[in-house]
Automatic annotation (TrEMBL), chain A:
Function: Component of the menaquinol:cytochrome c reductase complex.
Record flagged with keyword Acetylation: no
PANTHER family: CYTOCHROME C-553-LIKE, MENAQUINOL-CYTOCHROME C REDUCTASE CYTOCHROME B_C SUBUNIT
Domain Cytochrome c, residue spans: 181-255
Assigned keywords, A-Z: Electron transport, Heme, Iron, Membrane, Metal-binding, Transmembrane, Transmembrane helix, Transport
The protein's name in its UniProt record: Menaquinol:cytochrome c reductase cytochrome c subunit
Assembly behavior: The main subunits of the menaquinol:cytochrome c complex are a Rieske-type iron-sulfur protein (QcrA), a cytochrome b (QcrB) and a cytochrome c (QcrC).
UniProtKB/TrEMBL annotation, chain B:
Protein name: Menaquinol:cytochrome c reductase cytochrome b subunit
PROSITE patterns per record: CYTB_NTER
Organism lineage: Bacteria, Bacillati, Bacillota, Bacilli, Bacillales
InterPro entries associated with the record: Cyt_b/b6_N (IPR005797), Cytb/b6-like_sf (IPR027387), Di-haem_cyt_TM (IPR016174)
GO MF term (any one): oxidoreductase activity
Record function comment: Component of the menaquinol:cytochrome c reductase complex.
Amino acid sequence: MHKGKGMKFVGDSRITADRKPNVPKDYSEYPGRTEAFWPNFLLKEWLVGAVFLVGFLCLTLAHPSPLEGMADPTNASYIPLPDWYFLFLYELLKYEFASGDYTLMGILVLPGIAFGALLLAPFLDKGPGRRPHQRPISVGMMLLALASVIWLTYESAANVDWESRAETNKPVPPGEQAAIDTEDPGYAVYENSCLSCHGDNLQGGAAGPSLIGIDKSAEEIATIATEGINSMPPDQFSGTDEELQQLVDFIVSVNEESGE
Amino acid sequence: MLQKIYDWIDERADITPIWRDIADHEVPEHVNPAHHFSAFVYCFGGLTFFVVVIQILSGMFLTMYYVPDIENAWRSVYYLQTEVAHGQIVRGMHHWGASVVIVMLLLHTLRVFFQGAYKKPRELNWIVGVLIFFIMLGLGFTGYLLPWDNKAFFATQVGLEIAQQVPFVGEELKTLLAGDEKIVGAQTLTRFFAIHVFFLPGALFALLAVHFILIRRQGISGPL
């Protein structure tokens, strides 16, 4: 850089008056087929990014993000579950050596060792060799940790019935609880036969899904009430045909109101 | 025209050296997927950053509708999902991006680990990278509560109970996060919102800056 005597500045600033040429560096002397980052390589990177984005958007469109019913702290039957990337830590706490008196093992010692070792890997694995077979201990530890994490996540996720969870926890549109007429003769029948599983506002519960926003005809509802469906056993409804009719009319009317 | 605008700014601010510092660096053959197909493993880091950018942009749009308040949080998300044009897509991008970023981050970490690229002189950048991983997990944990649905509420409750069991500082840690010794409620939601939207992203940007500056100063690790 030009310094000292004879330097010209723009006005009274510290910006030098002679402009530098805006030309890319020459990489022809570099080893192999070295390429300039700008713009040659960046364009290729954007191609990869574009393909990735298309795949990502397809995933987003094919699977809308889930939303369960509004948080209800009084719901004692809800089985909590963290997001999938925390499942392995959650599953770890179910083992005998990591729960009860040994909880500290599960919440601090084991994760602390694993993540601490990850953080300090460069100081634990100080040898000069970079190839995996030159550092069998660190590579072996990583493979072991990876296998444990995958196994724990699998163990945790395989025991969850994701579909029925999503079904029973469907969101109830706001403002629809008010539409339920507890004076309706059908509600009395509902109270006797269905309320214990489907909730006092038809909102659903741990044992039964919400009955609001269902896409079923009156005949189908009558059939389900007497014969059951999926995990719902038959003969949940016990009463006269007239009561059955009142029940079905009630459920259908609630759904018609909420559909408006 | 553009050239004239550039020259006008350059004469006053001397931006050419800054621009050349950013644009001029070499890409060695062994990391270029155009020459070696297996070099696609070097894309994981860049793609992670790409998903982070998606998360920042979609998150900015989500806050246009989201209300961090226990009465309205769930309703605002439900409204966004059902009424707002493309709201479902924007929330979907943020929701799936949160998972994809963890996957890409894991792949990037494994690439660096199995190539032994964290060895001298790159120890510091590895540590910064693992810290970024922790920040991401923190963002996942705090963001999970914000829709205020049942799975959010109960997962956070369990998470806070686990934090509570940490010896000596457990109670304080839980109160710090939840805003109350016992209740997981309005205070918890606003705290998690603030942590998710201001504290952790601030830390993330600082660490990302260090990560990228270190890469540029040290260059990418050589072939095995």
